[in-house]
Specification:
One of its GO terms (molecular function) is antiporter activity. It is a single chain. The protein is mainly α and 501 residues long. The chain is 78% helix and 0% strand. The protein has 15 helices and no strands. Helix 10 (303-341) runs parallel beside helix 12. The protein is globular. It starts with 38 loop residues before the first helix and ends in a 10-residue tail after the last helix.
Length: 501
């Protein structure tokens, strides 16, 4: 039958393990895994870890799909106002709002590390303090981002947008400033709940907000005839509705981890700021890297065909990416919880299972794309020329889907383990010093065009993924457990004398 998967004691003398919270390990008596020795052990370990992974990943992915739907239906309703209005709102949401979204999400990712490890260590009283501290930092970040919205018109013109589109997009950007500030409440409360695996409420909030958003859009645009102002108002209301719903749930149903407002949120905040900035840099370097391919492609000889075909491919890649964002958050929670609980094998095995299952999904996605490479573009366009352009890019899309099945998992491990600073340096090197220059050279100095740009960027992603896989493979999880308490003191502001690595 094989050895039992859990025992109450560690099989190593390097780390003294303690019982995890019951919400983290629900098998056996709450101890760490014993070494996997037989196929039966492997099968049971995969079964247990899969349940824990998807119990977190599925609701988060569903929540993200609902959020994506809010943006999509905003564009759909605006598209019935006019083509120029549609282009303007699409530019505002994809350039201005997406920039601030990525930066603020990155800043909030620091909370995944601290709340996840604190919950795993049983220090639930600190979760509310960390959440408040993150909220203060994100509000300050929103204030710093205000010039991006206020001066969006000259900025968009500088980026080469048509003047009439830039003017309308600029007005819309000013009107959605309240939605940006809602993220300063939304993200910390979201990470607070994720760290405790309370993710079902996130799925329900996202679904209700999505349904209500469609109703409010219809009311403001079709009934009241408010035009773009109505679309912006609906966008703001949905953003604040999600944020406030999460606050209400926390204050009413999280009494074990929410103890009310505390002045400790203002104490020793600088260490938290440094981790937040490292998290933001790590995530933004990834988000902006994939945005830059559109910018480079737009300057090719036939930008309409190149950008159009690439956009169709990126749209499909984005739908797959939503699933892996959920997996990214789930593995971050799993790793941080297990490290905080003193369970090195559980952290290691959760990473192994998640990488294997994500790679399997990526391979299935790749095979589907290859099998339908001459057909799937019909869903987006009637242009035969555009369909041919998409078909030419299909193999690159297939490779990208495989790489993007692994890369978010490793990024989630980095957040869970608190390696944001290291990953930021790796992203900068692989993406911007290696990937982008190669893509620029292949795109503009050969006949490859958009395919050359994409090939270069795929190489950067491949190199980054390989390096991170090697780091994870060589990680001593016993040492990671031993360092967890030190990291919580350092980044939680409990001992600001220690420098952030």
């Amino acid at each position: 039958m094989g050895t039992p998967l859990f025992d109450g004691k560690s099989s190593t003398n390097e780390v003294v393990l303690h019982d995890a919270p019951s919400a983290v390990l629900v098998y056996g008596d709450g101890g760490d895994y014993t070494p996997v020795q037989t196929f039966y052990d492997v099968k049971n370990m995969f079964y247990l870890e899969s349940i824990k992974l998807w119990a977190i990943a599925a609701p988060i992915a569903f929540n993200i799909v609902c959020n994506y739907g809010i943006n999509s239906f905003t564009n759909i309703f605006v598209g019935h106002i006019g083509d120029v209005e549609l282009s303007s709102v699409a530019i505002s949401l994809s350039v201005i709002a997406n920039f601030s979204f990525g930066f603020l999400l990155g800043m909030a990712s620091a909370l995944e590390t601290l709340c996840g490890q604190a919950f795993g260590a049983g220090e639930t009283d600190m979760l509310g303090v960390y959440m408040q501290r993150s909220g203060l930092i994100l509000i300050a970040a929103c204030i710093c981002l205000l010039p991006l919205y206020i001066f969006s018109v000259p900025l968009l013109k500088l980026l080469g947008q048509r003047h009439d589109i830039a003017e309308i997009a600029g007005r819309f950007s000013l009107q959605i400033i309240p939605q940006m500030f809602s993220l300063a409440i939304n993200f910390p409360t979201q990470k607070f709940l994720q760290a405790q695996s309370k993710v079902t409420i996130l799925a329900w909030v996202g679904f209700v907000a999505f349904v209500l958003h469609i109703g409010v859009l219809f009311l403001f645009i079709k009934v009241f005839k408010w035009g773009l102002a109505g679309a912006a108002a609906a966008y703001d209301i949905s953003g604040w509705g999600v944020a406030l719903a999460q606050v209400v749930y926390i204050t009413g149903w999280c009494q074990d981890s929410w103890k009310g407002l505390s002045w400790l949120a203002f104490k020793d905040i600088w260490a938290f700021v440094r981790l937040s900035v490292a998290s933001a840099v790590m995530l933004c370097l990834e988000i902006w890297y994939f945005m830059s391919i559109i910018v480079l492609t737009g300057h090719l000889d036939d930008p309409v065909l190149a950008v159009g075909s690439l956009s169709i491919c990126m749209n499909l890649n984005g739908w797959e990416g939503m699933l892996f964002i959920g997996i990214n958050a789930a593995i971050s929670v799993r790793v941080s919880n297990e490290l905080g609980s003193g369970h090195p094998r559980a952290a290691k095995y959760s990473v192994f299972v998640t990488v294997v299952e994500s790679l399997f999904i990526g391979i299935i996605s790749m095979l589907i794309i290859i099998a339908t490479r001459d057909k799937f573009a019909i869903l987006f366009t009637n242009s035969v020329q555009m369909q041919k352009g998409v078909s030419d890019l299909a193999y690159l899309l297939a490779v990208t889907m495989v790489l993007n099945s692994i890369q978010p998992v490793i990024s989630g491990v980095a957040v869970g383990g608190g390696w944001q600073g290291l990953v930021a340096y790796i992203n900068l090197t692989c993406y911007y010093i290696i990937g982008l220059p190669i893509g620029f050279f292949l795109g503009y100095n050969t006949n490859l065009g958009v395919q050359g740009i994409w090939m270069g960027m795929i190489f950067g992603t491949f190199l980054q993924t390989v390096i991170l896989l090697i780091i994870v493979w060589k990680t001593n999880w016993n040492e990671e457990v031993a360092q967890t308490s030190e990291r919580m003191r350092k980044w939680g502001g409990l001992n600001d004398d220690l420098d952030v690595k």
